[in-house]
Every structure is written in C-alpha cells, then in structure tokens.
Specification:
Mean pLDDT: 87
Shape: globular
Helix content: 10-25%
Oligomer: single chain
Order of helices and strands: EEEHEHEEEHEHEEH
Number of helices: 5
Distance between the termini: 25 Å
C-alpha cells in the first residue's frame, strides 16, 4: 500500500464528485477523515486532521464546525458521520443542530449474529427522541474497505491514498484489524480483531457511512 501512495494536489483531484467526512471522538481529541468520492465509489483519502481538546467542551466542536464548512477547492463537505460511542449526548446534540448539513450521529454494530448493511434504512431514537443515532454495520464496512484495498487499478472501488497523511503510521492503523473466525453453536462467525495497543483509522470508517 505504501508504494501506491500518491502526491497531493492543491485541491481535490478531478475525479472527485463529492466529499464526505468521518469523525472519531476520543477523550482528548476529535480525529477527522476527509474522503472524496467519484464514479463507481472510487475514493480519495484527502486528509486526516486531529483536533485536540475535551469533546465535553465546545472548543473542539467549534473547530470541527469551521473545518466542515471550509471550501475544498470547488467542493464543500456534503455529509459527515460522527462516532457517538463516546460523549453520546454531545454528539447527538451537535448533529441535531446540523441535520440540514447531513451530519449524523453513528454507532457501529457488529455482525456477530446476522449480516447488517453499512447504512441503516432509518435512524434509531432513544431517550424519548432526544437522541437520534444511525446504527451501522461496522463489520460490513470493514470488509468492504479491505476488499477495496486489494483493487490495484484505478477506477470503480479503487482507494487513492495521498501524502503526507497517508504515511506508514497511517497505513499500519488502516490494516491493524484482522478478520478471524469463531464458532457459536457450531456455526462459523467471522469478526474483526484488533491486537491490544494497536490503533486503527476509525475516522476513515465513519466517513464511508454517509
């Protein structure tokens, strides 16, 4: 994969038709992936940003708001998925105020019992409608990402990785998780396993879901 990393361009490449964002929420930061999409879901990992700060406070969210509304050449971010596994209420409140910009609170659901689509047909509401969250098939998304990384010719499904953020550290995070099999009641079940202490590119996964 490192041999396939491409030089950056001053704005999204010509093949990009729209841009989405994925945001991973951690205790001390927000991590943001910006992904461009072309015909046949050819994609470009355009940028990866880290916004330091406690997500329980407004400051990192204000920075994120500015980032998502900033023009990217001829494009603006058309949709954003925000991981609501941590600071759930803060994420839901932030997204609710920006639903017109297609900002959605997300939670990943494993496919241990049955296959689940990446994007659900409708959102789930909790706390009397105060929280609106999209429950997405995280294992299905990971399978799709890994399958597309094996595509070696540009075109539908191909994943373009751009410098400088797509370096060896980022790529090690991208392939940190491994597909394993366990047997439940005699039935083979596939699941994704991450070794202890390894980081993965969770923000990129969130960017696929919108």
């Amino acid at each position: 994969l490192l041999a396939r990393v491409e030089d950056p361009s001053p704005e999204p490449p010509e093949g990009v038709c729209l841009v989405t964002a994925g945001v991973d929420v951690q205790t001390d930061r927000l991590e943001v992936a910006l992904v461009g999409w072309g015909r046949g879901e050819e994609s470009w990992a355009l940028d990866h940003r880290v916004i330091p700060g406690d997500p329980g406070h407004p400051q990192p969210w204000a920075v994120l708001d500015e980032l998502l509304t900033r023009p990217l050449g001829r494009h603006v971010v058309q949709a954003a998925g925000i991981d609501a596994g941590y600071q759930t209420q803060a994420v839901c409140d932030w997204c609710k105020a920006r639903v017109s910009r297609r900002c959605w609170a997300l939670k990943g659901i494993a496919n241990m019992e049955s296959p689940r689509p990446i994007w659900p047909p409708r959102s789930s509401r909790t706390d009397g409608g105060r929280r609106e969250i999209r429950l997405v098939g995280v294992d299905t998304a990971k399978e799709l990402i890994h399958a597309r990384l094996s595509i070696e010719e540009t075109g539908p499904g191909y994943v373009h990785m751009l410098r400088p953020h797509c370096d060896d550290v980022w790529l090690h995070q991208l392939v940190a998780e491994k597909l394993r099999t366990k047997y439940i009641h005699g039935r083979a079940v596939h699941y994704w396993w991450k070794p202890d202490g390894r980081r993965c590119v969770r923000a990129l996964l969130a960017s696929m879901k919108p």
